[in-house]
Amino acid sequence: MEKRLKISSTAYRVLLLLQKLNEKNKNADELNELFLDDPDVERIFSKDVILKYISTLRLAGYDISRPSASNNYCYELNKAPVLIDFSDEEIRTLVLLKSYAEGFQQNKHIKNYYSFLEKIKRYMCKKQIEKLNEQITIQEKKDEQILNKFKNQSDLIKKIEQYLNENQNVEIKYKLPEEEKEKLIIVKLLKLKYKINEVAIIYCDLISNQMNCLKIDYISYIKQLPSISGEKQVLCSVIFKLKGKLAKTYRPYEGEKITVPSLKSHELTVTAYCDDIETLLKRLLKYGENCEVLYPKQIRNNMINTINNALKNYTTALL
Q1: Greater confidence, 250 or 227?
Q2: Cα–Cα–Cα angle for 15, 20, 21, nearest 5°?
Q3: Number of Cα atoms under 13 Å in the Cβ half of residue 54
Q4: pLDDT at 224 over 80
Q5: Which of 1, 10, 135, 247 has the most crowded Cβ, counting Cβ within 10 A?
Q6: What is the CATH number of domain 153-224?
Q7: Residue 68's pLDDT band (cuts 50, 70, 90)
Q8: What is the CATH topology of the domain spanning 237-318?
Q9: Predicted structure pTM score
Q10: How far is it, in rounded angstroms, from Cα 116 to Cα 133?
């Protein structure tokens, strides 16, 4: 039997308190709730005992502010005596993370980054914090391209982010570039998806219960509905056939499986389960005559329309 390492119960509670303060500012009642919920403590303590644990950490060199109205009467960990020696490259990474967090135009990414940064600063010396702030100032002058990348879509991104947080069904009107008519769908939003120069939503269609992807550039109208969907989301399945040498060398991507091994060595049938049909079809188009979409009919027709529209360019050129 493995010998269990013994530790003073008081020392354990002090370290547990430190861990929780490192995560978030807490008042005495909240700290007691954490002690009660911990399987190795399962009890509450007087405020005098909590203060004694805080004093122990202060004596060890931890800067913990006193509760006041300005910090909602919470204990706040400001600085730790154990410092991390960050390299120049690591400081640069912290700066770049700020650029990308702000570039996504989502409040949750910005909030999470600054919360993370404040925790990191507790373990940085004054000289390194000055270097970090200096690098942030330099980077902000270079960030125009990153920060403006999705700026024109900022309002819509924030609205979608709000709808995602509130978990409500949403009504969307959109129009694809290759289609003449606008479409209306009722969906449950699942997440925002960022690509190189565009943002899309992953959603579940409440009619088909299938997941799909839509660029927010195509959206002309979006409205939250007063109902929450309890339906399960099903990844859209696309079946395609591969031919020739490609069939012999093809290795399934994530979410794909070979469903019907053909008796013919030069043919292969694959089922792909995905939430981004557009990206899948772009990849299948690259396979040219060696690929044929079999199912579902709507996706097959989308592929046919895309190919026919491409052929029109060459027909016009010949005339």
Answers
A1: 250
A2: 95
A3: 24
A4: yes
A5: 247
A6: 2.30.30.100
A7: confident
A8: Alpha-Beta Plaits (3.30.70)
A9: 0.50
A10: 15
